[in-house]
Each structure stands twice: as structure tokens, then as C-alpha cells.
Specification:
By secondary structure, this protein is an all-alpha fold. The protein has a domain of 31 residues. 50% of the residues lie in helices and 0% in strands. The chain has one helix and no strands. The radius of gyration is 26 Å and the shape is rod-shaped.
Length: 66
């Protein structure tokens, strides 16, 4: 039995590894795409750092709401 001979188990395992790599790349692309869409949409990017934010205080409204 030669050392370089590939067993059938190795072929199946490499197929699973390729499938897992495709799934991981797709997940990373999805997260990256959602991140880019969130940043480009101009949504409120205020951090939630447990500090007072006057923009969220209904008693501190400068302009009447429509």
C-alpha cells in the first residue's frame, strides 16, 4: 500500500470541507453585506453607551414633531 494513495474517506472529508468553506464564506458575505447596507442607509448610528441623549428625551424637543 503506497503512502500517497488516497482513501475514499479522504475524498468524502475533503468534499465536506469544501462545503463548509462555502457556507462560511456565504455567511461572512451576508454579514458584510448587511453591515454595508446599514452604514449606507444613513440610519442612526448613535452608540448605546448608557449616557443621556437629548435626542431621545420627549421633554427636550426643540422643534414640534409632525
Amino acid at each position: 500500500m503506497a503512502i500517497t494513495r488516497e482513501h475514499e474517506l479522504h475524498k468524502r472529508r475533503s468534499g465536506r470541507n469544501v462545503g463548509l468553506a462555502v457556507v462560511l464564506v456565504a455567511f461572512i458575505a451576508l454579514v458584510f453585506g448587511l453591515t454595508i447596507a446599514k452604514v449606507q442607509s444613513g440610519a442612526s448610528l448613535q452608540a448605546y453607551d448608557h449616557s443621556y441623549r437629548p435626542a431621545l428625551d420627549p421633554d427636550n424637543v426643540r422643534f414640534p414633531q409632525r
